[in-house]
Amino acid sequence: MSEPLLDVQNLRVRFPTATGPVEVVRGVSFTLGRERLGIVGESGSGKSMTGRSILRLIRKPGEVTADRLRFDGKDLLSISEREMRKVRGARISMVMQDPKFSLNPVMTVGEQIGEALAVHEKLPRRQIRERVLTMLEAVQIRDPERVFGLYPHEVSGGMGQRVMIAMMLIPEPAILIADEPTSALDVSVQGEVLKIIDELITRNGMGLIFISHDLHLVSQFCDRILVMYRGEVVEQCAASELDKASHPYTRGLLASVPQLNETRELLPVLDRSQWETA
Amino acid sequence: MGNGMSAISLKNLDVSYGDTRVVEGVSLEIAEGECFGLVGESGSGKSTVLRAITGLAPDWEGEIDLFGQPRDKSIDKRFAALCQMVFQDPYGSLHPRQTVDATLSEPLAIHGIKDADRRVPEMMEACGLDPRFRFRLPHQLSGGQRQRVAIARALMLKPKILLLDEPTSALDVSVQAEILNLLKRLRREQGLTYVIVTHDLPVVSFLCDRLAVMRQGRIVEVADVAALKTNTMKDPYSRELVEKSTTRITA
Q1: How far from each other are the two terminal CA atoms of chain B, in whole angstroms?
Q2: SS3 at position B85
Q3: For residue B5, how many C-alpha atoms fall within 13 Å in the half-sphere facing its CB?
Q4: Residue A213 lies in a domain
C-alpha cells in the first residue's frame, strides 16, 4: 500500500480531574489506508475518544497530544482552527451513534444535508438540491423528493441514520469515522445501513474507521481490527483472524457473547485481574 | 406447558396507539416459572405487548390475565406487586436526582411496607450491587450497575413476573454477560416468570424456554427454544430472522 491516508503515532488524550489528570487514550498508534479499520472495545476503552481526537473534537479542558497525527501532509494538531474546519466534514467526517440526537430537529432533512455541502463548496441552490437528492438516492431512500422536506422526527431511526450518512458523505471526504453507526438501530436495518456504508466507501475509495463494541459485527465488516482496553491497543489483527486472537481480554470478550445454539449454563465473565497486573 | 394456571394469559389482545393498531389478536399462555422470549423487528409490536401488560399502553382490548386474575385498565397496586418491568435504557429509566436508596425504597413506601432498611441492602446484595453504592446517584454508576439497580427496583415488591424490555441491548457484551447471568440466577432463586423482549436471538437462546416471533403486530410462530438453536422453526419469516442474525452484513 502507498502512503497511508492517516498516520497516528502515540496519541494521548488527557482530562484533568480533582485527583490529577486521567489519561483516557494512552499512546495509540495506527495508520489507515483505503481500507476498513475497526476499533473495538467496551465503553470507557477510549475508542470514541480516539475517533474524536482525530477531528479535534475533544473539548477543553481535555488535552490531546501525539508524536504524529498526519493527514494529507498536514499535522492535524498544529494547524489553525480555521484550517481544521476545512478538514472537518469536508475531508474527514464522522457519523455518530444516534440520529435522534445528532440531527437538527428544526431543519428539514434536505436543508441539513445541503448545508453540509454549502459550508464547504460554493454552489448554486438548485445544484445543491440536485446533489442532495442524488445523495439521498445513494443511501437508498426510496422517495428522495418527499424525504427532502421531512423533519428528523418524521423519519424512522434507520432512515435518520441514512440521512446522517448522506450528510457526512456529500462533501466526498477521504476518511469516514463511524462511531457506533448502527447500535441505535434494529438488527434488520443494521445490515442495510452497513451495506450502504460499505458500497459508498468502496465506490469513493475512502478510508473507514469503524468504532464499535460489537466484536462479531466488526469482524464481519472490517479488514483490520484494533482492540482497545483502558486507552491502549491490546491487540491488532486481520478481521478474518479474530478467532485466533491471543490477548486474554479479546478472548474474554469473544467468550462472553451468547451463541445462537447456546448450551452454557452461565456465560464467562471477564476476569480483569488476569491481565491488569501483568 | 403444564396444566394448572398460567402466569400470564393473553387472549385476543389488540393494542392501539391513537388510531394505529400496533398489536392484533395476540394470544399467549405463559406458565409459571417459564422464561418466554418475544422477538421480531422494531415496529413488530413486541414491546407494546409488554407495555399493555404493565399498563403503559392502556388502549387495549381482549383479555390479560395474570395468575387467573383479569387485569383491568386502571392503576392497580396489587397488580404492581405481582408484575414489574425493566426497561432497555438504564440511563433513562432511573431518576437522575434520586440515590439508589431512594429509588429502591420508593416502591416500598408506595405499598406501605416498612422495613426498607432491611430490604434495600438485601436486594442490592441479591443483584450484585456493592453496599457502598447505596447512597450514590445514577450518574456515579456504570451502565451495568444502573441496570442492576433497575432490576433491583423491579424486584423490591417481590413480584412473581418480570417483564424485560431489551434489558441488555444498551450494554457492552462483557456487561451483558454479567446481567444475563444475574437474570438467570434471580429467576432460579426467586422462582420468577420472565417475558423478555429482544432482537438478539442468542440472548433468547441463552435465557429462554420458549419464544414467539412477531411481525407487524401479530404472532407468526410460537416455538421451543430448541427449534431456535437448531434453526428448525416452521415459519419462513422466523427462519429469515434467524438467518439475518447470523449473517448481518451479507444480508
Answers
A1: 36
A2: strand
A3: 9
A4: yes
Whether A215 and A156 map to the same domain: the answer is no
Q: Looking at the structure, do residues A220 and A83 belong to the same domain, yes or no?
A: yes
Q: List pLDDT tens digits, range B174-188.
A: 888 989 999 999 999
* Residue of B173, B181, B205 to mutate when probing chain A, most A C-beta within 10 A: B173
**Within a domain: A43:** yes
Whether A241 contacts A223, CB under 8 Å:
no
Distance (Å) from the C-alpha of residue B33 to the closest C-alpha of chain A?
17
pLDDT for the residue numbered A227? 94
DSSP class of residue B153 equals: H
- pLDDT at position B248 is 56
* B130: exposed, middle or buried (Cβ count in 10 Å: 0-12, 13-18, 19+): exposed
Judge contact between B173 and A256, C-beta under 8 A.
Answer: yes
Secondary structure of residue B154 in the 3-state scheme: helix
Domain B6-88+159-246 class?
alpha beta
Q: Do B230 and A261 touch (CB under 8 A)?
A: yes
A and B: number of Cβ contacts within 8 A: 98
Q: Which DSSP symbol is given to B143?
A: H
* Domain membership flag for residue A224: yes
Mean pLDDT, chain A, rounded, equals 88
| Overall number of domains in chain A | 2
**Alpha-carbon gap, residue A166 to A103, rounded angstroms:** 12
Same domain for A6 and A55? yes
Residues of B in contact with A188 (CB under 8 A): 41-42, 199, 241, 244
Domain annotation covers residue A264: no
- Tell me the torsion sign for CA atoms A253, A193, A88, A149: negative
Question: In this predicted structure, what is the pLDDT of residue B4?
Answer: 61
**Cβ neighbours of A265 in B, within 8 Å:** 184
* Residue A48 region by backbone torsions, left for phi larger than 0, else alpha for psi between -120 and 50, else beta: alpha
Across A33-40, average pLDDT: 93
Using the predicted structure, report yes or no on whether residue B2 has a pLDDT greater than 50: no
Residues of A with Cβ-Cβ distance to B242 under 8 angstroms: 260
Does residue B132 contact residue B23 with C-beta atoms inside 8 Å? Answer: no
